[in-house]
């Protein structure tokens, strides 16, 4: 340096700088180090920055005033610097020579200013709106220029030094320009031309945010304010950044994955050639999904890792500064500015660390978010094209799990992934500094830490085992609840509630026992976690003091070590967590990789090219199977369908009719033969597949709307009348799986969709089985038949309807997967083969009835019972395991009903209410809609204090107070220990250390152990309180739900109720307790920190007020916004999964119509909508973190400042105590806000459970003083007097002033058109509907006076849909075990099930699966008959099944009823008139009133309504 500055200007003078009260830096130091620092930085960074700008071009920005000013200032700066340079040359010429530094510095600085100016312009051309590189440069330059600025002023004030006027002038100009550049750098440029910011309605401000705004997340503030003023809605969310959207992210991953697969395929064949001998050993390399993930997301993630590295290093600066601060307070006469400098340095370092840490988190979270998007996208695209074999190995439920659980695991892992290398790094650094501080004694402390790890690990393993066990109980409880709610109507009709309630409570008891065990473990681990730092400190200090007499524990050593131990605590606790989540993620990775490696359907298996022959469909010698391993389903199929003809395919159940259709669609594996199809396809599956969209969208299915054509199609499919009934016409939103349409309507919509698509070839898989006979005839004539809309198209129709066969061109008869005969109707009859036999078995009369009139739902004003029951039987043609499907449907209902879209729901509710009256009643629909929306808004805004009090009451008021008291005690013990430590360190100054050591160590240990024990007791007491609360809340909910009237279940989607039992109870069981624990812990520790700092430096109390105000202010903003964002996120998450499940179930339809791309786009938008609310949620956490940590850093600053100010009064121990506490507070403040927010969002569960535990209940089950006699009813006389009833308040009457009386033993048939009130009549007998007027008496006793169970147990019903519960067959027949074995077998004998049951190995213990899936529909119906036979009451109600029961089962039931119940009163709701032709009397209902009531024969002679119905059914000519 001497060479540069010469001898006149020394580089460093200690006396001038450090040891004086007004320090100043030497001129040489100013000119060299201070001037060169910023220049070095800019020249070092610019090559990398230029490379970055070259790669990322966002389009250029127009020249703005701001840009011009920046450039001008840059040029002026360059001129100013070089003025100095030329002045030095001028001096040289005038013989006054300066040292070389005066040449070098202006030259270097001037060049740098030119570089900066160049960068300003380059950034403009590359579309950079705000530059971090230049901001840091101007900031550092200004900082470095402050010192010369000050010293030049000081020099000017000193007399006798002639100032250097020109250099002073240039320097001041230079300084002012620097400050201006720094200020201008904080402003943003306009966005680049043609960027999507202009086109986007609500762009994310991040893309246009400046550097400072990005670092502090200031750009988010706008949303925080908006969210605070009123709850955020979906429309307030910013659109997703382009770079995070599905259309960018998913293709990137898929490209890498395709490359990876291609490499794996190319690398394997060569190996096999060379290694033929070792072929057995080497399997071809599997494509690694991980590799493609790394290639796609690795680079971006590494930026985050770089930030993490920086942050780890900076973390260790503060303990060193703390050491200097403590030694500063010990020394006498040192200049005060040292202390202030240290305090501000601590603040600055902490602030820098905050900024860097949150940038790191931001990068990690965004990577996680992109990972999830990409994985969901990849899985969705794959699931559309996998083969049936693959579908069999991954059921819908499993694939949804891949999307939800496994993608989520990856997302969670990315946030911690850096801990894998960062934790060991932090541990090593901490140990190094500790060793410097305390020498080898550190090892004792580390040993304790290492010993605690296996303890924590063991607890974690055990806890996980308990969790698994608990999940098992929870699943079985939810499964049972799901069944109970599905069959709640049946439970009520049979009065079986008590038996099922006991079952649920038994499972719940086991669940709570496991929770209790988990709580014991939890309190142990909390103790370990809280006491760890203390134990480590205790052992280290004790060893340190006892090893050597000369080792004196002073404040510096003690508190610096404490803060290092605190740093060490985090990585040590994180490592096991990271490793376990790594293991989980690797499992997930394997599952995703396996799924993505499944075989795909071969698009070439069906030849779709235009072929010369005039046949539209040809199959030559086809042999097909569902999966390669299975035996073929179809053998040697040959078929030619001429253009424009209609081919009917008939045969018995299971002979391969649907498989043939699938083969034509290319869904099956082709083993042999050729298929070719000419032109486009339309496909109507056997189970109609309906999307969750409007009715019109379901029919258009992506085609443009054409009014006249659309009207014709509705007419042809008999949908016009249905549209009048639907509340919104064709704009009615159809619920998931077509929930608010009846089976028949769904099928007709499916046919309409095919019609609208105007394809060339139509594949119709038995579409007429689900509609009424007359509707079927209408559709056949208008659509498929010889004069129908499709008469010129090629049609292949699978059918069971014999009546249509004479009108088709050709018939193909399938027997066991082979074509047995084929030809026209006449030809086949002449051949007298299988077909003729098939026809003879069914006389014409049967045919018409067999066309089952399954308008079940709408027909009998039976509402759709719930969201699930009526499509759990959606067994698609693929042999998918039904159980899985149900599981899945259950999951979906639970996922999606979290907060359903109020719009679709209101439609469902209104629909139910409006079925009664076809003419829409606007004034009625409005209130119901209103009410619905209110029901949903309970969850916005702040949580009321009342809810917290409710919870405290559930825990127990005394217990609640006691828990708080315990927390106070444990914190008092902790503070006591630390104050004792600071006293102990002060002994060092008094030189009486050795005498006191045993006492000091002993008391310190006692306080610490007391704290540990208190922690354990308090967390255990808290857990017990929480479990008690959980038990009480669940019991109240369950009890209420069993006593709730049926109308509630009709109007509330089942998913919503199940959700209370699963999600909300789960929150109360597991999430709430841990949140409360953390909340209390952080709250008390934050308060105790404040107490410690105030007690050591009382003046600190002044600052607490303002800081607390800012804190609460920020916290309120954050909690309001983040709570709503969480809610929006969970609302938008369910559509992803429901759309996905919908697509998978309908994938064959989607493929047949060639709509794959449209569906992929739809999935993209759904995922993006979800991420749109997730992304602000991440940023909200960062935003909060930066602000709260800033408050924490201020606390550190003030604690240190006041320690410096009060240096005279304070001892080093107290300074160490208060500052080391302040360093800790940042963490607990941050956690406190998070916990408050979590607590608020979790406590909502209590509110939701309370809401459903307090709904209105039905009449009491038993009324003691009004019990009917035990043998009642003896005769079975039933009388209705002026009886009226409505479904719910505010709806029209369904039955109006009904009066009739029935003698005991009469058999009454009840008939009537849809909506006449047939089912309502039976519901009234059981009081599922309460009277609106009039009364019903049975044997002279008014049924409204007695308890519900007393009434219902004395009546028997065989319901329309047979409902079975999972459990043994015995339990299904007799849940209370009232009857003996013999009686049960007798009932089975009479119900024709004896043979079936006795052939089963388990006999009566035969396990029925959920919903009785392992029995056929007919068998289930017979089980219901057996139930009726067992109860054998005087009154039997038979709601005739409309579902597809085969004719023989029907005959069995009828004959049994005629023989076994001959002396009972029987009411039959008939759909097939021939069953009631021999009844005593027939009641014809019309619009809720008695239209005709007489014997069948006299009704026929009256030629009224009944005669008309009989004529339709072909019973009279």
What does this structure look like?
The strands form 5 sheets. The protein has a 6-stranded mixed sheet, with helices on both faces. Strands 15-18-19-12-20-21 form a 6-stranded mixed sheet, with helices on both faces. Helix 12 (289-315) runs parallel beside helix 17 (419-438), helix 18 packs antiparallel against helix 20 and helix 36 packs antiparallel against helix 37 (993-1042). A hairpin with a 6-residue loop joins strand 10 and strand 11 (1293-1302). The chain is built from 52 helices and 21 strands. The radius of gyration is 41 Å and the shape is elongated. Helix content is 63%, strand content 8%. By secondary structure, it is of the alpha/beta class.
């Amino acid at each position: 340096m001497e060479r540069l500055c010469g001898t006149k200007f020394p580089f460093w003078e200690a006396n001038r700088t450090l040891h004086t009260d007004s320090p100043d830096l030497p001129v040489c130091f100013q000119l060299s180090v201070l001037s060169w620092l910023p220049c070095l930085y800019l020249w070092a960074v610019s090559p990398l920055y230029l490379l970055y700008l070259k790669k990322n071009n966002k389009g250029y920005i127009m020249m703005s005033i701001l840009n011009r000013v920046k450039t001008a200032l840059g040029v002026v700066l360059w001129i100013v610097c070089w003025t100095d340079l030329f002045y030095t040359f001028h001096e040289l010429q005038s013989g006054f020579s300066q040292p070389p530094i005066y040449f070098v510095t202006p030259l270097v600085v001037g060049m740098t200013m030119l570089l900066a100016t160049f960068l300003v312009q380059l950034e403009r051309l590359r579309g950079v709106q705000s530059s971090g590189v230049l901001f840091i440069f101007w900031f550092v330059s200004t900082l470095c220029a402050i010192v010369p600025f000050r010293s030049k002023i000081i020099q000017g004030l000193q007399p006798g030094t002639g100032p250097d006027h020109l250099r002073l002038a240039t320097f001041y100009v230079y300084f002012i320009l620097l400050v201006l550049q720094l200020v201008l750098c904080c402003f943003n440029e306009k966005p680049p031309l043609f960027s999507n910011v202009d086109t986007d309605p609500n762009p994310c401000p991040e893309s246009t945010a400046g550097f400072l705004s990005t670092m502090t997340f200031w750009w988010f503030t706008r949303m925080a304010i908006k969210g605070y003023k009123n709850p955020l809605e979906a429309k307030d969310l910013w659109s997703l950044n382009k770079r995070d959207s599905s259309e960018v992210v998913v293709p990137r991953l898929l490209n890498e994955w395709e490359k990876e697969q291609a490499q794996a395929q190319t690398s394997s064949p060569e190996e096999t050639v060379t290694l033929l001998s070792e072929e057995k050993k080497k399997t071809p390399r599997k494509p690694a999904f991980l590799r493609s993930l790394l290639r796609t997301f690795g680079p971006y993630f590494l930026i985050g890792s770089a930030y993490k590295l920086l942050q780890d290093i900076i973390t260790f600066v503060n303990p060193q500064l703390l050491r200097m601060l403590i030694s500063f307070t010990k020394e006498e006469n040192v200049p005060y500015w040292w202390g202030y400098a240290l305090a501000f340095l601590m603040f600055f370092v902490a602030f820098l660390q905050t900024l860097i840490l949150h940038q790191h988190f931001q990068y990690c979270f965004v990577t996680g978010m992109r990972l999830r998007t990409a994985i969901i996208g990849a899985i969705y695209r794959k699931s559309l094209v996998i083969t049936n074999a693959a579908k069999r190995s991954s059921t819908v439920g499993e694939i949804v799990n891949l999307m939800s659980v496994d993608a989520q695991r990856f997302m969670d892992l990315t946030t911690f992934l850096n801990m894998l290398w960062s934790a060991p790094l932090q541990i090593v650094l901490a140990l190094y500094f500790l060793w410097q501080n305390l020498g080898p004694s550190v090892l004792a402390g580390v040993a304790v830490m290492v010993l605690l790890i296996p303890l924590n690990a063991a607890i974690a393993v055990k806890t996980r085992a308990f969790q698994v066990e608990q999940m098992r109980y929870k699943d079985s409880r939810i499964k049972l609840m799901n069944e109970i709610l599905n069959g709640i109507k049946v439970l009520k009709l049979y009065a079986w509630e008590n038996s099922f309630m006991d079952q649920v409570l038994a499972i719940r008891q086991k669940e709570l026992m496991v929770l209790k065990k988990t709580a014991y473990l939890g309190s142990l681990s909390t103790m370990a976690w809280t006491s760890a730092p203390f134990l480590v400190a205790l052992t280290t200090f004790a060893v340190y003091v006892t090893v050597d007499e000369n080792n004196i524990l002073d404040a510096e050593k003690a508190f610096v070590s404490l803060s290092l131990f605190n740093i060490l605590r985090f990585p040590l606790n994180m490592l096991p967590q990271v490793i376990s989540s790594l293991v989980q993620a690797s499992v997930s990775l394997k599952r995703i990789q396996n799924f993505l490696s499944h075989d795909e359907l071969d698009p070439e298996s069906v030849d779709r090219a235009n072929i010369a022959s005039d046949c539209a469909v040809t199959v030559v010698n086809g042999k097909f199977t569902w999966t390669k391993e299975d035996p073929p389903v179809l053998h040697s199929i040959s078929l030619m369908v001429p253009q424009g003809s209609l081919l009917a395919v008939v045969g018995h159940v299971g002979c391969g009719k649907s498989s043939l259709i699938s083969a034509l669609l290319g869904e099956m594996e082709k083993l042999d033969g050729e298929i070719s199809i000419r032109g486009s396809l339309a496909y109507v599956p056997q189970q109609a597949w309906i999307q969750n969209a409007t009715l019109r969208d379901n029919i258009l299915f992506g085609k443009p709307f054409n009014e006249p054509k659309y009207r014709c199609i509705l007419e042809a499919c008999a949908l016009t009348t249905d549209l009048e009934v639907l509340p919104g016409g064709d704009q009615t939103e159809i619920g998931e799986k077509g929930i608010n349409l009846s089976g028949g309507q769904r099928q007709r919509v499916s046919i309409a969709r095919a019609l609208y698509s105007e394809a060339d070839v139509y594949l119709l898989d038995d579409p007429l089985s689900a509609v009424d006979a007359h509707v079927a005839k209408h559709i056949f004539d208008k659509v498929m038949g010889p004069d129908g809309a499709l008469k010129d198209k090629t049609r292949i129709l699978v059918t069971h309807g014999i009546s249509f066969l004479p009108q088709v061109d050709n018939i193909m008869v399938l027997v066991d997967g082979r074509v047995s005969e084929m030809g026209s109707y006449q030809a086949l009859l002449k051949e007298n083969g299988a077909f003729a036999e098939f026809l003879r078995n069914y006389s014409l009369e049967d045919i018409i009835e067999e066309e089952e009139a399954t308008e079940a739902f709408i027909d009998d004003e039976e509402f759709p019972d719930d969201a699930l029951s009526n499509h759990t039987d959606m067994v698609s043609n693929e042999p998918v395991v039904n159980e899985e499907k149900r599981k899945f449907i259950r999951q979906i209902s639970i996922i999606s009903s979290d907060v359903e879209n109020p719009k679709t729901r209101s439609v469902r509710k209104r629909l139910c209410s409006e079925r009664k009256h076809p003419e829409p009643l606007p004034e009625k629909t409005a209130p119901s809609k209103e009410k619905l929306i209110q029901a949903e808004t309970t969850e916005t805004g702040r949580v009321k204090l009342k809810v917290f009090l409710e919870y405290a009451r559930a825990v127990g008021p005394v217990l609640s107070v006691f828990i708080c008291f315990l927390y106070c005690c444990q914190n008092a013990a902790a503070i006591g220990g630390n104050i004792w430590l600071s006293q102990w360190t002060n002994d060092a100054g008094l030189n009486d250390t050795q005498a006191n050591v045993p006492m000091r160590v002993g008391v310190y240990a006692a306080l610490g152990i007391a704290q540990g024990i208190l922690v354990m007791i308090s967390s255990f007491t808290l857990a017990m309180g929480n479990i008690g609360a959980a038990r009480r809340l669940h019991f109240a909910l369950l009890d209420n739900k069993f006593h709730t009237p049926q109308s509630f279940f009709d109007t509330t989607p089942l998913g919503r109720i199940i959700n209370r039992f699963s999600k909300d109870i789960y929150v109360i069981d597991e999430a709430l307790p841990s949140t409360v624990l953390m909340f209390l812990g952080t709250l008390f520790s934050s308060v105790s920190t404040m107490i410690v700092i105030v007690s050591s430096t009382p003046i600190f109390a002044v600052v607490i007020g303002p800081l607390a105000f800012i804190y609460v202010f920020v916290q309120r903003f954050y909690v309001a916004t983040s709570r709503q964002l969480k809610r929006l996120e969970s609302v938008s998450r369910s559509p992803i999964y429901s759309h996905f499940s919908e697509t998978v179930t309908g994938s064959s339809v989607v493929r047949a119509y060639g709509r794959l791309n449209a569906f992929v786009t739809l999935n993209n938008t759904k995922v993006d909508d979800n991420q749109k609310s997730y992304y602000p949620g991440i940023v909200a956490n960062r935003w909060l973190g930066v602000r709260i940590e800033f408050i924490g850093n201020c606390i550190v600053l003030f604690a240190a400042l006041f320690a410096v100010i009060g240096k005279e009064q304070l001892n080093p121990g107290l300074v160490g105590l208060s500052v080391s506490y302040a360093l800790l507070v940042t963490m607990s403040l941050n956690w406190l806000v998070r916990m408050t927010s979590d607590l608020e969002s979790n406590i909502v569960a209590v509110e939701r459970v309370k809401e459903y535990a307090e709904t209105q209940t039905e009449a009491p089950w038993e009324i003691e003083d009004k019990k009917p006699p035990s043998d009642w009813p003896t005769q079975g006389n039933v009388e209705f007097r002026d009886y009226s009833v409505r479904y719910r308040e505010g709806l029209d009457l369904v039955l109006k002033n009904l009066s009739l009386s029935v003698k005991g033993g009469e058999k009454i048939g009840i008939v009537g058109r849809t909506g006449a009130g047939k089912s309502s009549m039976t519901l009234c007998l059981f009081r599922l509907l309460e009277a609106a007027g009039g009364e019903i008496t049975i044997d002279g006793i008014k049924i409204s006076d007695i308890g519900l169970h007393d009434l219902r147990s004395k009546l028997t019903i065989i319901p329309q849909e047979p409902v079975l519960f999972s459990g043994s067959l015995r339990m299904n027949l007799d849940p209370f075990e009232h009857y003996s074995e013999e009686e049960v077998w007798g009932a089975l004998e009479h119900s024709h099930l004896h043979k079936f049951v006795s052939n089963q190995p388990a006999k009566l213990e035969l396990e029925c699966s959920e919903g009785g899936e392992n029995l056929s529909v007919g068998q289930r119906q017979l089980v219901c008959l057996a139930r009726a036979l067992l109860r054998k009451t005087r009154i039997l109600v038979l709601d005739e099944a409309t579902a597809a029961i085969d004719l023989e089962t029907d005959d069995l039931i009828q004959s049994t009823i005629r023989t076994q119940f001959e002396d009972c009163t029987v009411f039959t709701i008939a759909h097939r008139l021939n069953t009631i032709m021999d009844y005593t009397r027939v009641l014809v209902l019309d619009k809720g009133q008695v239209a005709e009531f007489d014997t069948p024969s006299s009704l026929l002679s009256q030629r009224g309504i009944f005669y008309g119905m009989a004529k339709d059914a072909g019973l009279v000519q």
